[in-house]
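A reminder before we start the practical. When you read a complex entry, don't treat the lines as separate problems. The point of joint prediction is that each chain is placed relative to the others, so the output describes one connected object in space. Small molecules and nucleic acid strands, if listed, are placed in the same frame. In the example below there are two entries. Take a minute to note the order of the lines before looking further.
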Amino acid sequence: KAGVTQTPRYLIKTRGQQVTLSCSPISGHRSVSWYQQTPGQGLQFLFEYFSETQRNKGNFPGRFSGRQFSNSRSEMNVSTLELGDSALYLCASSLRQGQSDYGYTFGSGTRLTVV
Amino acid sequence: ELKVEQNPLFLSMQEGKNYTIYCNYSTTSDRLYWYRQDPGKSLESLFVLLSNGAVKQEGRLMASLDTKARLSTLHITAAVHDLSATYFCAVGYYGGSQGNLIFGKGTKLSVKP
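Here is the predicted structure of the whole assembly.
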């Protein structure tokens, strides 16, 4: 079966711009979580969406937002980009909200570079 | 806030040797996940441990979970170069601002001939 698809794979943006990243979960999975990975902070939780509703949010500023569509695809948006937003953004797909007995499947990630 | 500590953070091994990576966490949880990450790549799921005493093995890797000690281990047997990667443990936790998976900082494993 198809895995978790993230697009684009790579992005280079300028400070102050905004960016939208996309994540299509595994077919039948209804929960999508987003993580930011940086060398300094490691893997940090951004938010989780289930049934088109944000169920949980991490400690990130309001410049980070997201949404989920009826087909479970999710997008995250970062506005007014800062240099510190340069990171690998990963989305994780799971069957349902909350704890997963089957684990979480991660996409290949989007590498965002802010210059 | 739940904390997850992995050690060691860096591990250089010779091929054929055995070693163990430790994952300690600070709050009660009965769900523990291990992931592997190759440079520039995403996270690959290795093991899902769902109860106290759970043990799973795949090839040269074996993971275990002791929920009472809040400890999981990833044991590497007779290491080979292909196992070189960064290994993350993640504790399952629900509802907090840290999300459903709280990751350790990772153990960067380098297996040398």
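Discuss with your neighbour: Chain B touches chain A at residues 31, 33, 35, 40-45, 48, 50, 88, 90, 92, 94-106 (CB under 8 Å). What might explain this?
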